[in-house]
Amino acid sequence: MLAKKWSKFGILVIVATLCLGLVGTVASAAKVKLKYTYWGSPLEKKAQEDMLKDFMKAYPHIEVQPIYIPSDYVTKVTAMVAANDPPDVGQLAEAQALPWAEEGAVLDITPLMEKDPEVSYESRLPMTWYLYDGGKKTLGTNLAAEVMALWYNKDLFDQADVAYPPAKAGEWTWDEFVETAIALTKDRNGLHPGEAGFDPNNIETYGVAFGTWFAPILPFVWSNGGDWFNDEGTETLINQPESVEAMQKLNDLIYKYHVAPTPTQMQTFPAFNILLQTKKVAMVVDGQWALLDLAQSRFTLGVAPLPTLKEPVCLELGAPNVIFAGTKHPQEAWLLYKWSTSASSVMPLIKAGLWMPLQTEYYTNPEKMNEWLTEGVHPPEYKEAIIDYVLENGRRAPAYYMRNWEEIDRAIGQGFSNFWLGKEDAQTAANRVAETITPLLQGRYDR
């Protein structure tokens, strides 16, 4: 009898075990699976992977496959979309984002926002939104906020007995900036530009260095009251007096005042953080992302808003995260989109200096501000020089609104190449560029 009872008990145990196993299998099969594509440095790769792990812990019914694409990103994602196997959520280059949204390959998140109070136009920095269809639709915002700023080596300023740049936007004029750059520039004999015997061919320390792509240049054009296009994006203003004057002033830093290296020299130089650390350059115009490397360099780092010609302007830029329209799970993709663009989810990258938050509260609420400003990473003047700068003077880059931006940007870069090499003046170059880009102007996505 005992044997029979145990036999029945054993059968019940086996049946129960099988049932539990079946339930587990069904639960596993019921998981929603999403694909997330992204690019970036090794640090960004790890931070994004950690972000996805935390997301899956918070939403155990969702399984996310991270797909890291460090090169040829657009080509590979395009192939995925063409093969009807698109990502669900992922990064997308600025030049592709708005055209793909208009074509229907990227989701308009407006209906999702209307049902979810966690994300609104007011909750994120206003200049980070990508709008289209006359401003009635949006594909979302940057993955993170970025701005252009002036970074400098305080040790070089101290050695030269030169005052640091003001941290408040609008308090440093262009002429004062040029005087500072001259005082920090010296040749191998310790002579400065303008002094008898100064040798511009043997400069030991340059006062400033900057790139010649649109982001370091356009803020100065805007600051001078100029622009490259009219407000509708249908006419070029690149050859108008205000724009030309600002371009020429930047060019004069290289060839008139000899306080900045030429583009040819820049090609042979190491990265900006190395130039600052080795005291080859005292100041650089670069993006917020540069802080990741600058903070790890061995010198006392300072940051300031860009010098002002007529009015202070802060250029904001950044590639967006999007929901691809081909997703089979839009609600779950929305959860992942919100998570991936939340400052709290990627705080390691923000605290390290690579990214800035998107959410406005991290710029206006002191408690939230303290969550990401990090001693030893963000310089003491960072709040005034960057946070206040973008809040009060932020303006989004043309990639957020200009149609045909990739081709226009390429034409501008090529058209000014001889100008940056010192072979022609700003007006001559700008007139030629205006003729080239006028047929390319097709208006704006948000108008």
Provide structural commentary.
- The protein has 447 residues and is of the alpha/beta class.
- The chain has two domains: 33-144 and 318-341, D-Maltodextrin-Binding Protein, domain 2 (3-Layer(aba) Sandwich), CATH 3.40.190.10; 146-317 and 394-440, D-Maltodextrin-Binding Protein, domain 2, CATH 3.40.190.
- The chain has 20 helices and 13 strands.
- Strands 6, 7, 8, 9, 10, 11 and 13 form a seven-stranded mixed beta sheet that branches.
- α18 runs antiparallel to α20 (426-437).
- The longest helix is centred in the N-terminal third of the chain and has 28 residues, at 2-29.
- The radius of gyration is 26 Å and the shape is globular.
- Mean pLDDT is 93; it is low at 1-28.
